[in-house]
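Re-run requested by the PI after the first attempt was lost when the workstation crashed. Everything re-entered from the original request form. Ligand of interest: magnesium ion.
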Amino acid sequence: MNVSDQTIHDLNEALDHADLAIKRQTATTELREMGVVSQVGRGVAHVRGLSQTRSNELLRFPGGRLGIAFNLDETGIGVVMLDASETIRAGDEVRRTGRVLDVPVGDELLGRVIDPVGRPLDNRGSIESTKRLPCEREAPSIMDRSAVRQPLQTGVKVVDALIPIGRGQRELILGDRQTGKTALAVDAILNQKESDVICIYCSIGQRSTNVARVIDQLTRHDAMNHSVVVVGEPAAPPGLQFTAPYAATTIGEYFMEQGRDVLVVYDELGTHARSYRELSLLLRRPPGREAFPGDIFYVHSRLLERSTHLREEEGGGSLTAIPIVETEAQNLSAYIPTNLISITDGQIYLSPDRFQKGIMPAVDVGRSVSRVGGKSQLPAYRKVTGDLRLSYTQFEELEKFARFSSQLDEHTSQILERGKRVREILKQPLHETLTVPEQIVVLVAVTNGVFDQVSTQDLSDAGQKVQATVPKEIPDICETIERGGSLDDDAIDTIRRLALTVVADFAREKNDVVS
Ligand code: ATP
Ligand code: MG
């Protein structure tokens, strides 16, 4: 028989159609398959049946409640509930949805407060976005990544000068409770108002009053327009808290893939680890160190691996991660903090001792590090802060010993006096972020001895005068600094002279007031 090419082509097409129809039919039958709840409680359910369920698939319980298929065993499925499970009973019907957990993404989310599955929490109606992406996604491959090369200005002097963060970097903030961890991360978000960075604040089990405070600060400082807030409430099922950082990352990744720069703050991953521990123990996964499941390191590293700076060919977007973790009694070597220290590219340690002494932000420079940020730091900082970090940590060591000796040689007292002034200048009031030129002028002033004659009580006022006045008088130098140009000796001398004049005026005004 002579069969033409056209006939073969037509037959193939007919077969493809038939194949597709069968596949669709099977999928529909599979989705119609019904399972039964065999056990339920504390945010976890066990389901029998549904043998075709995929890992991480969403399952639908009575009343439209959702759960994620977490454990796929021969005897049944361990389901992590995303909704309250109190009204679910053994024997209830469960159906497959055929989709994995996803969140809405896109510009429609900017300015919104949502829960980890994309339901609005801000009484401003439903999210209009038509695009959704899965919460669990592969991290970009090595070949799609580029080195960290652009700074992410936090507007906080001590961080930008001594522990600089680059776009695409992962920088951990850790410290005991109430040491200003959230405040520092919020400052970093507020400072992006003038930049093009989109910010995502992800709260994991944080007290509602604290989250409300963060939202209030973002709103009052006009920062909500470039931000998204994802909230895993403390009263929510542990499954919802567990998925919060993944949802936040997916929302950020969408913007990154559009070539934009994103900052994600995870507040805090200790709670995330505990919610995962709770789920794992309820699902009878074997416990490991401190009862955490064996894969907790993997869980966190997989999350933080998703932040990067993409190559220009991939759009050049970036996702910077600032995870926060709480320490107990300043124990940096606890399990979860050490895990996170080794996963991230550096850490900012906030010490309670400093906080109590009023040194705020309470950053312990000696114990903080940024492993890749230095390469992205603006050249002007490098010129000014060259050995500041080292000399500052040496000063702090020296200060501890100086307390015991009554007579100090001149060189030592000089180091101590200068160090005290640097420390005063690095203090910064809450939510008063500074532009790059403002930071540079005051750093130039302090490292060049402009404040040496000012008493430590007056330093903060004198510093504020300098950073507010000097940049206005040197627009050309400010432009060079912001453009990424270096400071030459002439520019440094100009700044020093102007700062000296400001300090002299300040001293005169003060004397007038006193007399
Ligand atoms: P928690 O462990 O409860 O999450 P935290 O470490 O996140 O606490 P914050 O809530 O950020 O700490 O701050 C604790 C308190 O310290 C707040 O009342 C805040 O206003 C104050 N605070 C933080 N940073 C500064 C600062 N730079 N200047 C003045 N006050 C500050
Ligand atoms: Mg906090």
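Saved to the shared folder this time. Residues 5-32 form the longest helix (28 residues).
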